[in-house]
Task: structure prediction
Amino acid sequence: MIQQSTLKKLSEVLGLSISTVSRALKDHPDISEKTKTKVKELAVAMEYEPNSYAVQLRTKHNNVLGILVPTINNFFYDSFIAAVEDEARLHGYSVLIMQSMDKLQIESSNLNLFRKNMVAGLFVSISIETEDPTPFIKLNELKTPVIFFDRVPETDACNKVCLADAETGRVAAEAIIRKGKNNVLALFGHPHLSITKKRLAAFKETMNRLAPDTKVRYAFPEQADASRLELLAALEHDKPDTVFCMGDLILIGVMNVIHEKKLRVPQDISVISVSNGFLPGLYDPKITHVETNGYKLGKKAFAQMLGCLQGNTTVEEVFIESALVEGGSI
Result:
């Protein structure tokens, strides 16, 4: 392997000081055009490349953007990452992706790695265990923009790009009521998260206001296995006519039980979900869902990040509207 050329080697061959060579490569006005040409021609011949780490140390800047998600094994986050990568490439940035696995300790370690790598900006969907966003806000105060998305802190002192979570809960409840369903099992995500609180509150308020006699049972299974057990228990005692799933992982668990029990959708049981849109299309009939588009969210988040990188200091919360996508499941 050919050893990478360095400033020192260039200076030795040319008989110039390292500082003169460095300034010539940067087109410094104090260096003559003749010297600049000579230095640049030799740099090309010797395949010289600047030490990117040294540049980072000197400028405190990088062209890498960080993305921290609970897990990449999720269609919503996968599409969000794809959107950010598409935009980053167009604007000369690359992307570093890490997972918290919904553990505060891992999230904190990853944050330190992002800081040590001097990322230009950071996109964060917080873990279930995160209660204090201060470490992220401090990073923002050090001129490294932080954009929270999807799972966001409840504080107003930070930039957020969110789905219209309250609207999502309302739209789902209205769809259930329009179909005349009166025995609903509603499966939500972790109760600690703001995204769950907003969807649950709007869902409850809409059901109570428009159909106060409807029987609704609430559960909080974050993962597919938990939702599977919740539905199995419900089927044993008081079979619901409809299951509402707050996310794709919950939907997977629910559909597993439906297939195991050979239940027909929607004849035996109806299903409605909140989804990025990919999973509902894999079932027959397709699952009616409130679409939460990760790709659109990624585009919005990058636009907000770009504004921050260009000097915009306004703190704002941006929303992506929800929309009901009809399938044949309810």
